[in-house]
Amino acid sequence: MTARLLTVLVSLSVALLSPARAAAQANVPACPSDADKPDTVALIRRLDQLLSGRSSVSAMTMAIKTPSWTRSLKLKVWSQGKDYALIRVLEGGPRETGMMTLKREKQLWNWLPQAGRVMKLPSGMLGDSWMGSDFTNDDLLRGNSLTDDFTTALTGVEQVDGRTAWHVVLTPKPTAAVVWGRIEILIDRASCLPIAELFFDEDGKPARRMSFSDFRQIGWRQFPARMTVVPAEKGRETSIAYSDIQFDVDIPADTFSLQRLRQGR
To answer: Which pTM does this prediction carry?
Structure first.
């Protein structure tokens, strides 16, 4: 039996499993919906695994609204763990179409098609806005790990839109390179799915709210196909809507190479 055929058969067997069994085989922590005081580290690890994977390839539309203008971008995104990611603008304005952002470990580059060149960005720009949106480079490139970079604490249970939710507070570890003073996450107790994430700056002031909706079954995951960010600044909102996403797929190694980025493809 060839290695390729074996890979296909293994993938098919996993796909035929129930979501719960597939999650168990993927070493995903079980949803502790019956626990009054769940293990918050396991709960956040489950959330981290829900929103990412060993790898992923996705297509999405980003809609940006401000008091003075609106813009829509169609994107394709490739990711490999937390260290490698590539975003390509498939459709947008004349300046945006064809633009790409590449992350390789701690380094960032942009491909500027109009100028025909690659521009390296400071690694400290992970917390900066991507393409004028309310999502940061880190949001789209998934540079930080909630479990590796934050300590967790359960502060209570509350009602959110008719659902009972755990309120978990994440505080940055001393050595973590993160831009937020803290993150508060509301997690639906029945399903362990995220309802919203609240972000605070280093002074403890509210910076933005990210909400999750349109959950779809993708393998073991119920993945939020729509994410909306509303910043503290009034009149602004950015949403991304996934039209397709595949997890744990094989991605050619040169996808994240500077050579390919310089070729604009």
So the answer is: 0.85
Dist. CA 94–CA 23, nearest whole Å: 43
Name the token pair of 185. 């996450």
- pLDDT of res. 29: 85
- pLDDT at position 59 over 90: yes
Residues 149, 204: Cα–Cα separation, whole Å: 18
List Cβ<8 Å contacts ≥24 apart for 86-93: 86/255, 86/256, 86/261, 87/130, 87/140, 87/141, 89/131, 90/59
- Please state, in angstroms and as integers, the Cα–Cα distance from residue 85 to each residue in 55, 65, 116, 247, following that order: 9, 25, 21, 14
The single residue listed with the structure tokens 């009149």 is: 235
pLDDT at 121 over 60: yes
Q: Is 7 helix (H, G, I), strand (E, B) or coil?
A: helix
Written as six digits, the tokens of 50 are 């829900």
Paired residues of 239 in beta bridges: 63, 228
| Count of alpha carbons within 13 angstroms of residue 216, beta-carbon side | 11
Q: Is the pLDDT of residue 5 over 70?
A: no
Rounded CA-CA distance 207/205 in Å is 6
Which tokens is 60 given?
A: 């999405």
pLDDT at 7 over 90: no
Predicted confidence (pLDDT) per residue in 136-165, tens digit: 877 877 667 788 889 999 999 999 989 999
Torsion angle of the four alpha carbons 54, 59, 64, 70, in this order, in degrees rounded to the nearest 10: 170
